[in-house]
Protein backbone atom coordinates (compact mmCIF):
# COMPACT_ATOMS: atom_id res chain seq x y z
CA UNK A 1 0.00 0.00 0.00
CA UNK A 2 1.48 3.29 -1.14
CA UNK A 3 0.42 5.73 1.59
CA UNK A 4 2.08 8.67 -0.11
CA UNK A 5 -0.11 8.18 -3.19
CA UNK A 6 -3.16 7.55 -0.99
CA UNK A 7 -2.89 10.81 0.95
CA UNK A 8 -2.04 12.76 -2.19
CA UNK A 9 -5.24 11.47 -3.77
CA UNK A 10 -7.38 12.25 -0.71
CA UNK A 11 -5.90 15.76 -0.61
CA UNK A 12 -6.63 16.23 -4.32
CA UNK A 13 -10.21 14.96 -3.97
CA UNK A 14 -10.89 17.14 -0.91
CA UNK A 15 -9.56 20.30 -2.55
CA UNK A 16 -11.39 19.62 -5.82
CA UNK A 17 -14.76 18.85 -4.23
CA UNK A 18 -14.49 21.88 -1.91
CA UNK A 19 -13.70 24.13 -4.88
CA UNK A 20 -16.57 22.56 -6.82
CA UNK A 21 -19.01 23.65 -4.11
CA UNK A 22 -17.89 27.24 -4.69
CA UNK A 23 -17.83 26.97 -8.50
CA UNK A 24 -20.72 24.57 -8.93
CA UNK A 25 -23.34 26.50 -6.94
CA UNK A 26 -23.33 29.61 -9.18
CA UNK A 27 -23.31 27.46 -12.32
CA UNK A 28 -26.16 25.30 -11.01
CA UNK A 29 -28.06 28.46 -9.98
CA UNK A 30 -27.74 29.83 -13.47
CA UNK A 31 -28.73 26.50 -15.07
CA UNK A 32 -31.79 26.26 -12.82
CA UNK A 33 -33.19 29.77 -13.19
CA UNK A 34 -31.92 31.09 -16.52
CA UNK A 35 -34.49 31.38 -19.29
CA UNK A 36 -31.87 31.88 -21.98
CA UNK A 37 -32.93 29.95 -25.06
CA UNK A 38 -29.46 28.52 -25.70
CA UNK A 39 -29.13 27.27 -22.11
CA UNK A 40 -29.17 23.66 -23.28
CA UNK A 41 -25.80 24.21 -24.96
CA UNK A 42 -24.27 25.17 -21.62
CA UNK A 43 -25.95 22.16 -20.03
CA UNK A 44 -24.36 19.94 -22.66
CA UNK A 45 -20.92 21.48 -22.11
CA UNK A 46 -21.19 20.98 -18.34
CA UNK A 47 -22.22 17.35 -18.84
CA UNK A 48 -19.52 16.68 -21.45
CA UNK A 49 -16.91 15.18 -19.05
CA UNK A 50 -19.36 12.36 -18.26
CA UNK A 51 -19.22 10.99 -21.79
CA UNK A 52 -15.88 12.32 -23.03
CA UNK A 53 -12.94 9.86 -22.85
CA UNK A 54 -10.73 11.11 -19.98
CA UNK A 55 -7.72 11.02 -22.29
CA UNK A 56 -9.44 13.46 -24.65
CA UNK A 57 -10.30 15.81 -21.79
CA UNK A 58 -6.80 15.35 -20.38
CA UNK A 59 -5.23 16.12 -23.74
CA UNK A 60 -7.05 19.42 -24.11
CA UNK A 61 -6.36 20.39 -20.52
CA UNK A 62 -2.68 19.62 -21.09
CA UNK A 63 -2.66 21.83 -24.18
CA UNK A 64 -4.49 24.59 -22.31
CA UNK A 65 -2.04 24.46 -19.41
CA UNK A 66 1.09 24.25 -21.56
CA UNK A 67 3.44 27.15 -22.23
CA UNK A 68 1.89 27.74 -25.68
CA UNK A 69 -1.48 28.74 -24.27
CA UNK A 70 -2.37 32.15 -22.72
CA UNK A 71 -3.30 30.49 -19.42
CA UNK A 72 -0.04 28.52 -19.31
CA UNK A 73 2.05 31.62 -20.14
CA UNK A 74 0.25 33.71 -17.52
CA UNK A 75 0.86 31.05 -14.86
CA UNK A 76 4.49 30.72 -15.92
CA UNK A 77 5.10 34.47 -15.68
CA UNK A 78 3.49 34.37 -12.23
CA UNK A 79 5.24 31.35 -10.72
CA UNK A 80 8.17 30.56 -12.99
CA UNK A 81 7.03 27.06 -13.88
CA UNK A 82 4.29 25.55 -16.06
CA UNK A 83 1.03 24.12 -14.77
CA UNK A 84 1.46 20.85 -16.60
CA UNK A 85 2.85 18.00 -14.50
CA UNK A 86 2.16 19.82 -11.20
CA UNK A 87 -0.37 19.28 -8.42
CA UNK A 88 -2.08 22.59 -9.30
CA UNK A 89 -2.48 21.40 -12.89
CA UNK A 90 -4.00 18.20 -11.54
CA UNK A 91 -6.52 20.25 -9.53
CA UNK A 92 -7.57 22.20 -12.64
CA UNK A 93 -7.96 19.04 -14.72
CA UNK A 94 -9.94 17.33 -11.96
CA UNK A 95 -12.21 20.35 -11.53
CA UNK A 96 -13.30 20.04 -15.14
CA UNK A 97 -13.47 16.27 -14.97
CA UNK A 98 -15.73 16.22 -11.90
CA UNK A 99 -17.74 19.38 -12.63
CA UNK A 100 -20.94 17.58 -13.76
CA UNK A 101 -20.84 15.36 -10.69
CA UNK A 102 -21.25 18.48 -8.54
CA UNK A 103 -23.37 20.71 -10.79
CA UNK A 104 -26.01 18.16 -11.69
CA UNK A 105 -27.06 17.22 -8.12
CA UNK A 106 -26.94 20.92 -7.17
CA UNK A 107 -29.15 21.94 -10.08
CA UNK A 108 -31.49 19.01 -9.47
CA UNK A 109 -32.05 19.98 -5.84
CA UNK A 110 -32.41 23.72 -6.61
CA UNK A 111 -34.99 22.87 -9.25
CA UNK A 112 -36.89 20.68 -6.80
CA UNK A 113 -37.61 23.61 -4.46
CA UNK A 114 -41.29 24.57 -4.77
CA UNK A 115 -41.54 27.78 -6.83
CA UNK A 116 -44.41 28.97 -4.64
CA UNK A 117 -41.87 29.30 -1.81
CA UNK A 118 -39.79 31.58 -4.01
CA UNK A 119 -42.88 33.62 -4.87
CA UNK A 120 -43.77 33.89 -1.18
CA UNK A 121 -40.23 35.01 -0.36
CA UNK A 122 -40.41 37.72 -3.03
CA UNK A 123 -43.72 39.05 -1.74
CA UNK A 124 -42.16 39.17 1.74
CA UNK A 125 -39.53 41.58 0.45
CA UNK A 126 -36.56 39.33 -0.30
CA UNK A 127 -34.52 39.73 -3.49
CA UNK A 128 -33.86 36.63 -5.62
CA UNK A 129 -30.30 36.37 -4.26
CA UNK A 130 -31.41 36.63 -0.62
CA UNK A 131 -34.16 34.11 -1.38
CA UNK A 132 -31.54 31.76 -2.77
CA UNK A 133 -29.45 31.89 0.40
CA UNK A 134 -32.35 31.75 2.87
CA UNK A 135 -34.73 29.33 1.13
CA UNK A 136 -33.17 27.46 -1.78
CA UNK A 137 -29.79 26.56 -0.26
CA UNK A 138 -31.13 25.32 3.10
CA UNK A 139 -33.72 23.20 1.29
CA UNK A 140 -31.03 21.77 -0.99
CA UNK A 141 -28.77 20.38 1.72
CA UNK A 142 -29.13 16.80 0.49
CA UNK A 143 -28.21 17.85 -3.05
CA UNK A 144 -25.16 19.72 -1.80
CA UNK A 145 -23.96 16.69 0.18
CA UNK A 146 -24.63 14.46 -2.82
CA UNK A 147 -22.67 16.73 -5.16
CA UNK A 148 -19.76 16.97 -2.73
CA UNK A 149 -19.66 13.21 -2.17
CA UNK A 150 -19.95 12.30 -5.84
CA UNK A 151 -17.24 14.70 -6.98
CA UNK A 152 -15.02 13.51 -4.12
CA UNK A 153 -15.45 9.85 -5.11
CA UNK A 154 -15.11 10.61 -8.80
CA UNK A 155 -11.87 12.54 -8.31
CA UNK A 156 -10.53 9.78 -6.07
CA UNK A 157 -10.67 7.26 -8.85
CA UNK A 158 -9.67 9.32 -11.88
CA UNK A 159 -6.95 7.94 -14.09
CA UNK A 160 -6.87 9.18 -17.67
CA UNK A 161 -6.94 12.90 -16.98
CA UNK A 162 -4.31 12.55 -14.24
CA UNK A 163 -2.00 10.59 -16.46
CA UNK A 164 -2.33 13.10 -19.31
CA UNK A 165 -2.07 16.26 -17.22
CA UNK A 166 0.11 15.19 -14.31
CA UNK A 167 2.15 12.30 -15.51
CA UNK A 168 3.42 10.01 -12.79
CA UNK A 169 5.61 11.95 -10.36
CA UNK A 170 5.73 10.33 -6.90
CA UNK A 171 4.48 12.68 -4.17
CA UNK A 172 3.36 15.30 -6.71
CA UNK A 173 1.02 13.74 -9.24
CA UNK A 174 1.05 10.01 -8.60
CA UNK A 175 -2.50 9.18 -7.41
CA UNK A 176 -3.71 5.77 -6.22
CA UNK A 177 -5.25 4.71 -9.48
CA UNK A 178 -1.92 5.36 -11.23
CA UNK A 179 -0.17 3.55 -8.43
CA UNK A 180 -2.40 0.52 -9.02
CA UNK A 181 -1.57 0.65 -12.71
CA UNK A 182 2.16 0.80 -11.89
CA UNK A 183 1.93 -2.17 -9.56
CA UNK A 184 0.10 -4.23 -12.14
CA UNK A 185 2.71 -3.29 -14.75
CA UNK A 186 5.40 -4.68 -12.45
CA UNK A 187 3.28 -7.80 -11.76
CA UNK A 188 2.91 -6.81 -8.10
CA UNK A 189 -0.68 -8.12 -7.86
CA UNK A 190 -1.08 -8.43 -4.08
CA UNK A 191 -0.08 -4.81 -3.53
CA UNK A 192 -2.37 -3.68 -6.37
CA UNK A 193 -5.18 -5.68 -4.79
CA UNK A 194 -4.73 -3.98 -1.39
CA UNK A 195 -4.91 -0.50 -2.91
CA UNK A 196 -7.81 -1.42 -5.16
CA UNK A 197 -9.83 -2.71 -2.21
CA UNK A 198 -9.33 0.56 -0.33
CA UNK A 199 -10.61 2.50 -3.34
CA UNK A 200 -13.56 0.13 -3.76
CA UNK A 201 -14.61 0.44 -0.11
CA UNK A 202 -14.35 4.23 -0.09
CA UNK A 203 -16.40 4.49 -3.28
CA UNK A 204 -19.03 2.16 -1.89
CA UNK A 205 -19.32 4.15 1.36
CA UNK A 206 -19.63 7.42 -0.53
CA UNK A 207 -22.35 6.09 -2.83
CA UNK A 208 -24.18 4.63 0.18
CA UNK A 209 -24.24 8.11 1.69
CA UNK A 210 -25.59 9.53 -1.55
CA UNK A 211 -28.36 6.98 -1.96
CA UNK A 212 -29.05 7.03 1.78
CA UNK A 213 -30.04 10.65 1.26
CA UNK A 214 -32.37 9.27 -1.43
CA UNK A 215 -31.77 11.97 -3.97
CA UNK A 216 -31.56 11.26 -7.63
CA UNK A 217 -28.27 12.85 -8.56
CA UNK A 218 -29.15 13.24 -12.25
CA UNK A 219 -31.90 15.64 -13.10
CA UNK A 220 -30.33 17.82 -15.73
CA UNK A 221 -28.31 16.33 -18.48
CA UNK A 222 -28.52 15.11 -22.04
CA UNK A 223 -30.44 11.97 -21.08
CA UNK A 224 -33.11 13.66 -19.01
CA UNK B 1 -52.08 89.90 18.60
CA UNK B 2 -51.68 87.00 16.32
CA UNK B 3 -53.36 83.84 17.34
CA UNK B 4 -51.68 80.63 16.40
CA UNK B 5 -54.12 78.23 14.85
CA UNK B 6 -54.81 75.26 17.04
CA UNK B 7 -52.88 72.20 15.95
CA UNK B 8 -54.93 69.89 13.82
CA UNK B 9 -56.33 67.01 15.82
CA UNK B 10 -54.61 63.71 15.11
CA UNK B 11 -56.47 61.90 12.39
CA UNK B 12 -58.63 59.22 13.96
CA UNK B 13 -57.49 56.57 11.48
CA UNK B 14 -54.21 55.88 9.77
CA UNK B 15 -54.03 57.03 6.17
CA UNK B 16 -55.73 54.50 3.99
CA UNK B 17 -54.39 53.47 0.64
CA UNK B 18 -56.27 52.64 -2.50
CA UNK B 19 -55.52 49.98 -5.06
CA UNK B 20 -56.07 50.82 -8.68
CA UNK B 21 -55.81 48.15 -11.34
CA UNK B 22 -56.31 48.51 -15.08
CA UNK B 23 -54.58 45.68 -16.90
CA UNK B 24 -54.79 43.35 -19.83
CA UNK B 25 -53.07 40.02 -20.02
CA UNK B 26 -53.38 37.07 -22.30
CA UNK B 27 -53.03 33.89 -20.34
CA UNK B 28 -53.32 30.20 -21.09
CA UNK B 29 -55.94 28.02 -19.47
CA UNK B 30 -57.18 24.49 -20.19
CA UNK B 31 -59.62 25.69 -22.88
CA UNK B 32 -57.02 27.56 -24.87
CA UNK B 33 -55.86 31.03 -23.98
CA UNK B 34 -58.01 34.01 -23.16
CA UNK B 35 -57.70 37.60 -22.10
CA UNK B 36 -57.76 39.01 -18.63
CA UNK B 37 -59.08 42.52 -19.07
CA UNK B 38 -60.05 44.32 -15.89
CA UNK B 39 -60.33 47.83 -14.52
CA UNK B 40 -61.28 48.49 -10.92
CA UNK B 41 -60.42 50.37 -7.74
CA UNK B 42 -60.35 48.73 -4.34
CA UNK B 43 -60.64 50.94 -1.27
CA UNK B 44 -59.48 50.03 2.21
CA UNK B 45 -61.42 47.03 3.48
CA UNK B 46 -62.46 43.76 1.94
CA UNK B 47 -63.06 43.48 -1.77
CA UNK B 48 -64.14 40.02 -2.81
CA UNK B 49 -62.99 38.62 -6.14
CA UNK B 50 -65.63 36.08 -6.97
CA UNK B 51 -65.62 33.67 -9.88
CA UNK B 52 -65.30 30.09 -11.02
CA UNK B 53 -61.86 28.54 -11.35
CA UNK B 54 -60.23 29.62 -14.57
CA UNK B 55 -61.90 33.04 -14.43
CA UNK B 56 -58.51 34.69 -14.04
CA UNK B 57 -58.53 35.45 -10.31
CA UNK B 58 -55.11 34.06 -9.45
CA UNK B 59 -53.53 35.54 -12.59
CA UNK B 60 -54.90 38.92 -11.53
CA UNK B 61 -53.40 38.58 -8.05
CA UNK B 62 -50.06 37.48 -9.54
CA UNK B 63 -50.01 40.63 -11.69
CA UNK B 64 -50.70 42.88 -8.69
CA UNK B 65 -48.03 41.14 -6.61
CA UNK B 66 -45.54 41.49 -9.46
CA UNK B 67 -45.03 37.74 -9.83
CA UNK B 68 -46.15 37.87 -13.44
CA UNK B 69 -46.23 40.80 -15.86
CA UNK B 70 -49.41 42.09 -17.50
CA UNK B 71 -49.31 42.77 -21.25
CA UNK B 72 -50.15 46.42 -20.60
CA UNK B 73 -52.00 48.74 -18.25
CA UNK B 74 -51.37 50.27 -14.86
CA UNK B 75 -51.29 49.09 -11.24
CA UNK B 76 -50.99 51.60 -8.41
CA UNK B 77 -51.25 51.51 -4.64
CA UNK B 78 -51.89 54.69 -2.67
CA UNK B 79 -51.23 56.72 -5.82
CA UNK B 80 -47.80 55.19 -6.39
CA UNK B 81 -47.28 53.28 -9.63
CA UNK B 82 -46.15 49.68 -9.28
CA UNK B 83 -46.62 48.96 -12.94
CA UNK B 84 -47.26 51.29 -15.82
CA UNK B 85 -46.74 50.10 -19.38
CA UNK B 86 -46.80 53.66 -20.75
CA UNK B 87 -44.12 54.91 -18.37
CA UNK B 88 -42.24 51.61 -18.76
CA UNK B 89 -42.36 51.23 -15.01
CA UNK B 90 -42.38 47.80 -13.38
CA UNK B 91 -41.44 47.58 -9.69
CA UNK B 92 -39.91 44.21 -8.76
CA UNK B 93 -42.15 41.95 -6.69
CA UNK B 94 -39.87 42.09 -3.65
CA UNK B 95 -39.98 45.89 -3.57
CA UNK B 96 -43.76 46.24 -3.90
CA UNK B 97 -44.84 45.77 -0.26
CA UNK B 98 -47.90 43.78 -1.31
CA UNK B 99 -48.83 40.99 1.09
CA UNK B 100 -49.83 37.80 -0.72
CA UNK B 101 -51.16 34.61 0.82
CA UNK B 102 -51.16 32.00 -1.91
CA UNK B 103 -53.68 29.24 -2.11
CA UNK B 104 -51.18 26.60 -0.99
CA UNK B 105 -49.87 28.97 1.74
CA UNK B 106 -46.22 28.29 0.82
CA UNK B 107 -44.90 28.21 4.37
CA UNK B 108 -41.15 27.63 4.48
CA UNK B 109 -40.81 24.00 5.61
CA UNK B 110 -37.34 24.41 7.12
CA UNK B 111 -38.35 27.33 9.36
CA UNK B 112 -40.48 27.30 12.50
CA UNK B 113 -43.79 29.15 12.64
CA UNK B 114 -42.06 32.01 14.47
CA UNK B 115 -39.24 32.17 11.91
CA UNK B 116 -41.76 32.09 9.08
CA UNK B 117 -43.58 35.06 10.57
CA UNK B 118 -40.36 37.00 11.20
CA UNK B 119 -39.09 36.27 7.67
CA UNK B 120 -40.54 39.40 6.12
CA UNK B 121 -39.13 41.70 8.80
CA UNK B 122 -35.52 41.65 7.65
CA UNK B 123 -35.15 45.44 7.77
CA UNK B 124 -35.95 45.63 11.48
CA UNK B 125 -33.55 45.08 14.34
CA UNK B 126 -33.50 41.62 15.88
CA UNK B 127 -35.26 42.85 19.03
CA UNK B 128 -37.99 44.57 17.06
CA UNK B 129 -38.44 41.49 14.89
CA UNK B 130 -39.08 39.42 17.98
CA UNK B 131 -41.56 41.92 19.43
CA UNK B 132 -43.49 42.41 16.23
CA UNK B 133 -43.77 38.71 15.45
CA UNK B 134 -44.80 37.93 19.03
CA UNK B 135 -47.56 40.54 18.79
CA UNK B 136 -48.99 39.15 15.59
CA UNK B 137 -48.68 35.54 16.77
CA UNK B 138 -50.74 36.49 19.80
CA UNK B 139 -53.28 38.45 17.75
CA UNK B 140 -53.80 35.35 15.62
CA UNK B 141 -53.76 33.04 18.64
CA UNK B 142 -50.81 30.93 17.51
CA UNK B 143 -48.15 32.04 20.01
CA UNK B 144 -47.92 28.48 21.34
CA UNK B 145 -46.85 27.24 17.88
CA UNK B 146 -43.84 29.52 17.59
CA UNK B 147 -41.22 26.77 17.74
CA UNK B 148 -43.01 24.23 15.57
CA UNK B 149 -42.40 23.50 11.93
CA UNK B 150 -45.23 23.77 9.37
CA UNK B 151 -45.32 19.96 9.09
CA UNK B 152 -46.08 19.72 12.81
CA UNK B 153 -49.21 21.89 12.91
CA UNK B 154 -52.78 21.53 11.63
CA UNK B 155 -54.21 22.98 8.43
CA UNK B 156 -56.10 25.74 10.22
CA UNK B 157 -52.99 26.69 12.18
CA UNK B 158 -50.93 26.79 9.01
CA UNK B 159 -53.49 29.16 7.55
CA UNK B 160 -53.08 31.44 10.55
CA UNK B 161 -49.31 31.35 10.30
CA UNK B 162 -49.45 32.23 6.59
CA UNK B 163 -51.80 35.15 7.28
CA UNK B 164 -49.70 36.39 10.19
CA UNK B 165 -46.56 36.16 8.05
CA UNK B 166 -48.10 38.38 5.37
CA UNK B 167 -49.74 40.85 7.77
CA UNK B 168 -46.77 41.44 10.07
CA UNK B 169 -44.92 43.22 7.27
CA UNK B 170 -47.68 45.88 7.23
CA UNK B 171 -48.25 45.66 3.49
CA UNK B 172 -49.81 48.48 1.47
CA UNK B 173 -52.36 46.03 0.14
CA UNK B 174 -53.19 42.42 0.89
CA UNK B 175 -54.00 39.65 -1.58
CA UNK B 176 -55.64 36.50 -0.23
CA UNK B 177 -56.17 33.58 -2.60
CA UNK B 178 -58.93 31.40 -1.12
CA UNK B 179 -57.40 31.50 2.35
CA UNK B 180 -60.43 29.86 3.96
CA UNK B 181 -61.07 27.17 1.36
CA UNK B 182 -59.78 24.22 3.35
CA UNK B 183 -61.19 25.20 6.75
CA UNK B 184 -64.18 23.95 8.69
CA UNK B 185 -66.87 26.44 9.58
CA UNK B 186 -65.96 27.38 13.19
CA UNK B 187 -62.28 27.81 12.27
CA UNK B 188 -63.34 29.92 9.33
CA UNK B 189 -65.46 32.33 11.28
CA UNK B 190 -62.89 32.83 14.04
CA UNK B 191 -60.22 33.51 11.44
CA UNK B 192 -62.51 35.96 9.67
CA UNK B 193 -63.00 37.74 12.99
CA UNK B 194 -59.25 38.05 13.52
CA UNK B 195 -58.80 39.36 9.99
CA UNK B 196 -61.54 41.93 10.48
CA UNK B 197 -59.97 43.17 13.74
CA UNK B 198 -56.61 43.50 12.04
CA UNK B 199 -58.19 45.43 9.19
CA UNK B 200 -59.77 47.93 11.58
CA UNK B 201 -56.29 48.97 12.70
CA UNK B 202 -54.65 48.71 9.27
CA UNK B 203 -56.89 50.29 6.73
CA UNK B 204 -55.52 48.76 3.53
CA UNK B 205 -57.29 47.25 0.55
CA UNK B 206 -57.71 43.49 0.92
CA UNK B 207 -58.45 41.54 -2.25
CA UNK B 208 -60.03 38.29 -1.20
CA UNK B 209 -60.47 35.55 -3.78
CA UNK B 210 -63.19 32.98 -3.30
CA UNK B 211 -65.64 30.87 -5.23
CA UNK B 212 -67.76 30.33 -2.15
CA UNK B 213 -70.90 32.50 -2.08
CA UNK B 214 -71.17 32.37 1.72
CA UNK B 215 -67.78 33.97 2.21
CA UNK B 216 -68.91 36.84 0.02
CA UNK B 217 -71.59 37.80 2.53
CA UNK B 218 -69.43 37.13 5.57
CA UNK B 219 -66.63 39.42 4.47
CA UNK B 220 -67.48 41.60 1.57
CA UNK B 221 -67.70 45.34 1.61
CA UNK B 222 -67.52 45.15 -2.15
CA UNK B 223 -67.74 42.27 -4.60
CA UNK B 224 -66.19 41.99 -8.03
CA UNK B 225 -67.47 39.09 -10.11
CA UNK B 226 -64.99 37.79 -12.65
CA UNK B 227 -66.00 35.56 -15.51
CA UNK B 228 -63.79 34.62 -18.44
CA UNK B 229 -61.23 37.25 -17.49
CA UNK B 230 -63.74 40.12 -17.36
CA UNK B 231 -65.60 41.91 -14.60
CA UNK B 232 -69.27 41.00 -15.11
CA UNK B 233 -70.65 42.62 -11.96
CA UNK B 234 -69.42 44.86 -9.17
CA UNK B 235 -71.10 46.32 -6.12
CA UNK B 236 -72.12 45.63 -2.56
CA UNK B 237 -72.69 41.92 -1.83
CA UNK B 238 -76.46 42.18 -1.38
CA UNK B 239 -76.77 44.13 -4.64
CA UNK B 240 -74.66 41.77 -6.65
CA UNK B 241 -75.49 38.50 -4.97
CA UNK B 242 -78.95 38.68 -3.40
CA UNK B 243 -80.72 39.82 -6.52
CA UNK B 244 -78.51 38.31 -9.13
CA UNK B 245 -78.85 40.07 -12.43
CA UNK B 246 -76.88 37.55 -14.34
CA UNK B 247 -77.27 33.88 -14.92
CA UNK B 248 -73.52 33.40 -14.53
CA UNK B 249 -73.61 34.57 -10.91
CA UNK B 250 -76.43 32.21 -10.11
CA UNK B 251 -74.51 29.32 -11.57
CA UNK B 252 -71.42 30.27 -9.66
CA UNK B 253 -73.04 30.59 -6.31
CA UNK B 254 -74.46 27.12 -6.54
CA UNK B 255 -78.16 27.28 -7.25
CA UNK B 256 -79.24 23.71 -7.86
CA UNK B 257 -82.79 24.82 -8.72
CA UNK B 258 -83.28 27.32 -11.51
CA UNK B 259 -86.77 27.80 -12.99
CA UNK B 260 -88.35 30.05 -15.55
CA UNK B 261 -91.17 32.01 -13.92
CA UNK B 262 -93.92 34.46 -14.81
CA UNK B 263 -94.98 37.23 -12.44
CA UNK B 264 -98.68 36.77 -11.52
CA UNK B 265 -99.38 39.37 -8.83
CA UNK B 266 -97.43 41.99 -6.90
CA UNK B 267 -97.94 42.46 -3.15
CA UNK B 268 -96.18 45.74 -2.62
CA UNK B 269 -97.42 46.16 0.94
CA UNK B 270 -95.85 42.81 1.88
CA UNK B 271 -92.73 43.23 -0.20
CA UNK B 272 -93.45 40.05 -2.11
CA UNK B 273 -94.92 38.84 -5.36
CA UNK B 274 -96.39 35.62 -6.64
CA UNK B 275 -94.78 33.85 -9.57
CA UNK B 276 -95.84 30.86 -11.55
CA UNK B 277 -93.08 28.37 -12.21
CA UNK B 278 -92.44 27.09 -15.72
CA UNK B 279 -95.44 25.63 -17.49
CA UNK B 280 -96.58 23.86 -14.31
CA UNK B 281 -99.17 24.79 -11.73
CA UNK B 282 -96.74 25.66 -8.95
CA UNK B 283 -96.98 29.18 -7.56
CA UNK B 284 -94.28 30.68 -5.40
CA UNK B 285 -94.23 33.73 -3.21
CA UNK B 286 -90.92 35.48 -3.86
CA UNK B 287 -89.31 38.76 -2.80
CA UNK B 288 -90.56 41.77 -4.67
CA UNK B 289 -88.33 43.09 -7.42
CA UNK B 290 -88.86 45.79 -9.99
CA UNK B 291 -90.97 43.78 -12.40
CA UNK B 292 -94.37 43.97 -14.02
CA UNK B 293 -97.20 41.48 -13.96
CA UNK B 294 -96.71 39.07 -16.83
CA UNK B 295 -92.97 39.66 -17.12
CA UNK B 296 -90.73 36.65 -17.23
CA UNK B 297 -87.90 36.00 -14.76
CA UNK B 298 -85.73 33.22 -13.49
CA UNK B 299 -85.90 31.92 -9.95
CA UNK B 300 -82.87 30.30 -8.33
CA UNK B 301 -83.20 28.29 -5.11
CA UNK B 302 -80.37 26.51 -3.33
CA UNK B 303 -81.12 22.85 -2.59
CA UNK B 304 -79.84 23.35 0.95
CA UNK B 305 -82.41 26.12 1.59
CA UNK B 306 -85.38 23.79 1.06
CA UNK B 307 -87.17 21.76 3.75
CA UNK B 308 -89.05 18.47 3.37
CA UNK B 309 -92.00 17.45 5.53
CA UNK B 310 -93.84 14.12 5.57
CA UNK B 311 -97.05 15.61 7.01
CA UNK B 312 -98.82 18.85 6.19
CA UNK B 313 -96.77 21.46 8.02
CA UNK B 314 -98.67 23.94 10.20
CA UNK B 315 -97.73 27.17 11.87
CA UNK B 316 -94.75 27.88 9.62
CA UNK B 317 -93.38 31.26 8.77
CA UNK B 318 -92.43 30.02 5.32
CA UNK B 319 -94.96 31.17 2.73
CA UNK B 320 -94.63 28.32 0.26
CA UNK B 321 -95.64 24.76 1.09
CA UNK B 322 -95.86 22.60 -2.01
CA UNK B 323 -97.19 19.02 -2.07
CA UNK B 324 -95.14 16.58 -4.10
CA UNK B 325 -93.74 13.09 -4.55
CA UNK B 326 -90.16 11.89 -4.16
CA UNK B 327 -88.81 10.67 -7.49
CA UNK B 328 -85.41 9.42 -6.33
CA UNK B 329 -82.69 9.85 -3.72
CA UNK B 330 -78.98 10.12 -4.43
CA UNK B 331 -76.19 10.09 -1.89
CA UNK B 332 -73.23 12.46 -2.31
CA UNK B 333 -70.71 12.13 0.49
CA UNK B 334 -72.80 12.83 3.58
CA UNK B 335 -75.54 14.70 1.73
CA UNK B 336 -78.71 13.15 0.38
CA UNK B 337 -80.02 14.80 -2.71
CA UNK B 338 -83.76 14.24 -3.12
CA UNK B 339 -85.52 14.93 -6.42
CA UNK B 340 -89.14 15.89 -5.71
CA UNK B 341 -91.90 16.31 -8.28
CA UNK B 342 -94.39 19.07 -7.37
CA UNK B 343 -97.10 19.21 -9.99
CA UNK B 344 -94.73 18.95 -12.94
CA UNK B 345 -91.89 21.01 -11.45
CA UNK B 346 -88.85 19.13 -10.15
CA UNK B 347 -87.04 20.41 -7.05
CA UNK B 348 -83.66 19.25 -5.79
CA UNK B 349 -83.56 19.18 -1.98
CA UNK B 350 -80.51 18.46 0.16
CA UNK B 351 -80.91 16.48 3.39
CA UNK B 352 -78.72 14.80 5.94
CA UNK B 353 -78.45 11.04 6.21
CA UNK B 354 -80.13 11.24 9.62
CA UNK B 355 -83.10 13.15 8.19
CA UNK B 356 -83.60 10.52 5.48
CA UNK B 357 -83.63 7.75 8.05
CA UNK B 358 -85.81 9.57 10.60
CA UNK B 359 -88.45 10.45 7.99
CA UNK B 360 -88.10 7.08 6.23
CA UNK B 361 -87.84 8.80 2.87
CA UNK B 362 -87.80 6.83 -0.33
CA UNK B 363 -89.01 7.01 -3.93
CA UNK B 364 -92.80 7.37 -4.25
CA UNK B 365 -93.27 8.88 -0.79
CA UNK B 366 -95.59 11.89 -0.53
CA UNK B 367 -93.93 14.94 0.93
CA UNK B 368 -94.28 18.70 1.24
CA UNK B 369 -91.54 21.00 0.03
CA UNK B 370 -91.18 24.16 2.12
CA UNK B 371 -89.70 27.24 0.41
CA UNK B 372 -88.95 30.44 2.30
CA UNK B 373 -89.76 33.56 0.34
CA UNK B 374 -86.26 34.94 0.74
CA UNK B 375 -84.67 31.71 -0.42
CA UNK B 376 -86.01 32.56 -3.85
CA UNK B 377 -83.42 34.51 -5.82
CA UNK B 378 -84.60 36.35 -8.88
CA UNK B 379 -82.69 36.99 -12.04
CA UNK B 380 -83.49 38.69 -15.28
CA UNK B 381 -83.95 36.42 -18.29
Series of H and E elements of chain B: EEEHEEEEHHHEHEHEEHHEEEEEEEEHEE
Task: Using the 3D structure, state the CATH architecture of chain A.
Answer: Orthogonal Bundle
β-strand amount of chain A? under 5%
| Low-pLDDT residue intervals, each spanning 5 or more residues of chain A | 217-224
CATH top level label of chain A: Mainly Alpha
Gap from first CA to last CA of chain B: 72 Å
Shape of chain A: globular
Estimated helix fraction of chain B: 10-25%
| Domain count of chain A | 1
Largest sheet of chain A: none
Mean pLDDT of chain B: 84
Q: Describe the main β-sheet of chain B briefly.
A: 6 strands, mixed
Number of helices of chain A: 11
Helix content of chain A: over 70%
- Overall strand count of chain A: 0
**Pairing-aware structural class of the strands and helices of chain B?**
alpha+beta
Largest interface, by Cβ-Cβ below 8 angstroms: which chains and how many residues each? A-B, 19 and 26 residues
Number of continuous helical runs of chain B: 9
Q: In terms of structural class, how would the helical and strand content of chain A be classed? A: mainly alpha
* Named CATH topology of chain A: MetI-like fold
Can you describe this structure?
Chain A has one domain (3-212): MetI-like fold. Chain A is 75% helix and 0% strand. Chain A is built from eleven helices and no strands. In chain A, helix 3 packs parallel to helix 9 (160-166) and helix 6 crosses helix 7. The model of chain A is unreliable at 217-224 (pLDDT under 50). Chain B has helices at 57-65, 113-118, 126-139, 155-167, 185-201, 213-219, 237-242, 247-252, 353-359, and strands at residues 19-29, 32-42, 45-50, 72-77, 80-84, 89-90, 98-101, 173-177, 205-210, 222-227, 230-235, 257-267, 272-277, 283-287, 296-301, 307-309, 320-332, 335-342, 345-352, 366-371, 377-380. In chain B, the strands form four sheets. In chain B, strands 7-8-9-3-10-11 form a six-stranded mixed beta sheet, sandwiched between helices. In chain B, strands 2-1-4-5-6 form a five-stranded antiparallel beta sheet, with helices on one face. Mean pLDDT of chain B is 84; it is low at 5-14. Chain B is globular and about 70 Å long. In chain B, 38% of the residues are buried. The interface between A and B is medium-sized, with 19 and 26 residues.
Amino acid sequence: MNWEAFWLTVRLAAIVSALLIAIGIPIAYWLTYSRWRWKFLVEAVVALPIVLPPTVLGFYVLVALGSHSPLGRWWESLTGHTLAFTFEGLVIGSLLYSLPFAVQPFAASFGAVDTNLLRASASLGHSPVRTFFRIVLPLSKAGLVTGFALSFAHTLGEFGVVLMVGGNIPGVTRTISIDIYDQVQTANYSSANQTAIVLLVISFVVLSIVYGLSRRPWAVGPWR
Amino acid sequence: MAVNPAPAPPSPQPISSELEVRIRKRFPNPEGSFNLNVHFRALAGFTILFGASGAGKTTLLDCIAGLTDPDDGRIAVGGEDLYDSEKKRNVAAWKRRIGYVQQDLALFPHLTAGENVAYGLRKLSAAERVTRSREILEAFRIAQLRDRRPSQISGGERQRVALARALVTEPLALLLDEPLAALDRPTKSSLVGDLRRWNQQHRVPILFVTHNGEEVFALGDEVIVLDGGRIVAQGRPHEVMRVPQLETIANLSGFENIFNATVLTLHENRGTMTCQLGGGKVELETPLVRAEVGSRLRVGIRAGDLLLATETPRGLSARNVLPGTILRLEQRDVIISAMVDCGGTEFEVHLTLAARDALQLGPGKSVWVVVKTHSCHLMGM
